[in-house]
Amino acid sequence: MTDPRTRARSAGGTGWRELDLATAVDLVATRAAAGVAARGVADVVVPGGRGPTRLFAALRDRGLPGPAWRVHLADERCVPDDDPRRNAAAVAAALGVAPLGPPATPDPVAAAAAWTAALAPVGAFDVVVLGLGADGHVASLFPGATAPLAPDAADAVPAGASAPAPPRVTLSAVRLRRTRAVLLVVDGPDKDAAVARIRAGCDGDLPTSALAGPPRWLV
């Protein structure tokens, strides 16, 4: 009988591979450990939102993140530090470490510039963990966006949002591709349509098509 911890399958010819929770935790832990062994530090990108709740809990059960981890946000809202919509606070509560990201400022241009400067000494990420929106967005890379997906984009860029939602800052697609592994975490039936498109290889107009491969996903 196949151990479910090692079960993985291709997703509709797209090259995506679907993992169970234990295997997803192993992927993150293994990539982070390799970074620590090679450079003395692991650079791990994590998302906000509800999608990674179970993954974060499983990492904590394994005693992770470790002391040599640098946890980076995938995106952030331009709101004050004490605003409950800010991803940094939610990630810190879930993982027990303060993540690295943009400063708390209402100006997305200034926030993106400061975040890009802070990322300058950081090489390729060891693993990028992203959530998936019902519309197929990852980080704050939304369908139809151009600047965050441009090949010459800065590491961090402003991401538009419709009022009354606050503006956002996000890691650009080109920066997210500088990684040794990608894990997409999907939770909730509202994501079914987007997942079906990815499985069928019909996500060419979604930001997921701009991610480094071969990505893995946890549904």
Sketch the major β-sheet: 7 strands, mixed
- Report the C-alpha radius of gyration, rounded: 16 Å
Proportion of helical residues: 25-40%
Please state the structural category: alpha/beta
Low-confidence stretches: 1-13
Shape: globular
Strand line-up in the sheet with most strands: 1-2-10-9-6-3-4
- One letter per element, helices H and strands E, the order comes to EEHEHEEHHEEEHEHE
End-to-end Cα distance:
22 Å
Strand portion: 15-25%
Q: What's the tally of helices?
A: 6
DSSP, total strands: 10
Mean pLDDT: 87
What are the key terms here?
10 strands; 3-stranded antiparallel beta sheet; 28% helix; 219 residues; alpha/beta; disordered N terminus
Notes on the protein architecture:
The structure is a single chain. This protein is α/β, with parallel strands linked by helices. The chain contains 6 helices and 10 strands; from the N terminus they run E-E-H-E-H-E-E-H-H-E-E-E-H-E-H-E. Strands 1-2-10-9-6-3-4 form a 7-stranded mixed beta sheet, covered by helices on one side. The protein has a 3-stranded antiparallel beta sheet with strand order 5-8-7. Strand 3 (42-46), helix 2 and strand 4 form a beta-alpha-beta unit. Helix 1 packs across helix 2. The radius of gyration is 16 Å and the shape is globular. The two termini are 22 Å apart. Mean pLDDT is 87; it is low at 1-13.
